[in-house]
Write a structure and sequence with these properties.
Length: about 80
């Protein structure tokens, strides 16, 4: 996963300026929050959350064999994206 340095904020920035962090999350889909220069949390936009929720619901609707086929196909799909 590629992470833009523009999508990284410090924990103190999140506390001091939540609104601008939330706006960044909307722009980038998600931002990564660091505490003591270590990953601490991820803030995702409502739009990104809806997309993830739809994907999770779709996967949960599959029967076991369909789910297995879906999971097996993921590495090929991700390789094409990269």
């Amino acid at each position: 996963m590629k992470i833009s340095t523009k999508a990284i904020v410090s924990n103190s920035d999140m506390i001091k300026s939540y609104k601008s962090c939330r706006e960044k999350a909307e722009t980038f889909g998600k931002i990564f929050v660091l505490k003591n220069n270590q990953p601490d949390a991820v803030l995702i936009s409502a739009t990104e959350y809806e997309k993830l929720s739809e994907l999770i619901e779709y996967i949960e609707s599959l029967d076991e064999s369909e789910r297995s086929a879906f999971i097996e196909a993921l590495p090929a799909v991700l390789a094409k994206k990269g």
